[in-house]
Amino acid sequence: MSLNPDLTNVVPEAIIDFLEKNESxxxxxxxxQTIQDQADIHKEKVKxxxxxxxxxxxxxxxxxxxxxxVKHLAYKVAKERVEANINIGDFVYxxxxxxxxxxxxxxxxxxxxxxxxxxxxxxxxxxxxxxYHAVSQYTEIKNSELEEKKxxxxxxxxxxxxxxxxMSSSFVHEFRNPLTSIIGFNKLLRTEYPTLKYLDIIELELxxxxxxxxxxxxxxxxxxxxxxxEIFILSDVLDxxxxxxxxxxxxxxxxxxxxxxxxxxxxAHKDEIKQVFLNVLFNSIDAVxxxxxxxxxxxxxxxxxxxxxxxxxxxxxxxxxxxxxxxxEPFYTTKELGTGIGLFVCRKIIEKHSGELTCSSDEQKxxxxxxxxxxKTHA
Length: 379
Hints:
Layout: H1 13-21, H2 23-33, H3 43-61, H4 67-84, H5 88-107, H6 113-192, H7 199-217, E1 230-233, H8 234-244, H9 246-252, E2 254-260, E3 265-268, H10 270-288, E4 295-304, E5 307-314, H11 342-352, E6 356-361, E7 366-373
Parallel strand pairs: 2-4
Antiparallel strand pairs: 1-3, 4-5, 5-7, 6-7
């Protein structure tokens, strides 16, 4: 049965008088039931907004409210909730508490059922509109803030990388030339005095220093000149690297276990791939040094799903789950004297070779897994 057309827009003056007389009671009852954070910087405005919403509903019943009025109040409250950094769920809960209390008040006003239905419908509609616009505006502001933070973070990373590039160029220029001279003179000494002690150790230390400098070189614009890709046996390169690292392995008292397929070859920039393996193995040695013996590193190389897989595992401390991806970010390091660029450069090199570098870690072991394309032509 439809409502009497003559009553559809009629709100008796008695209900308005009733609401005006009970305004303070409504605000008091509402505040007692709302969720309020003492850290809210706008907590004093919550009561004020309650009065404004109450007035909005009274004017709604008098048909003197426009949609702009609703949006104005909704946007004001949304902005304050964002600034207060309050959970939007708490805000929605408080709005609906106000709705429930207001309808209970209306039910006590003594209006007939037809008029009551019209009044409750108007109240619900206005609360729904207010809540929708407030939450929408809140979400829009929050999203805008997130975008600004993302842009800031991205720009900060770019700025840091640009500074690092400038530092790397200067670093390489200042250190590489004298280092090359020292390496050359060391080779002359080996030729003239083949039995002279410690020349092998000096050469290994110089090579490691050269490797560290090369790390910085790959982060600068100077790393634009590349050697061509070549096809090489993977196990030969790994054996060469282990031989190079032998002093560090012995000094750290680390046990190295290898399981590599001597038939596997890849096509890549050999020096860059060597840099990745060196860096990952250096990190593994540093990791196992944090635990008691036995200190173990396991190196595996195999074919899986037509990909070359290299796994370097160590029994050092577990890397927390939230850090396992962060360690590949530039400038992130857990080492006291670390630069935070080693693994970042490694991942960039592997990705440039259409590969993938990942990390997994638990209480038993930490594994760095490198996946590269399998060279079927020369298999």
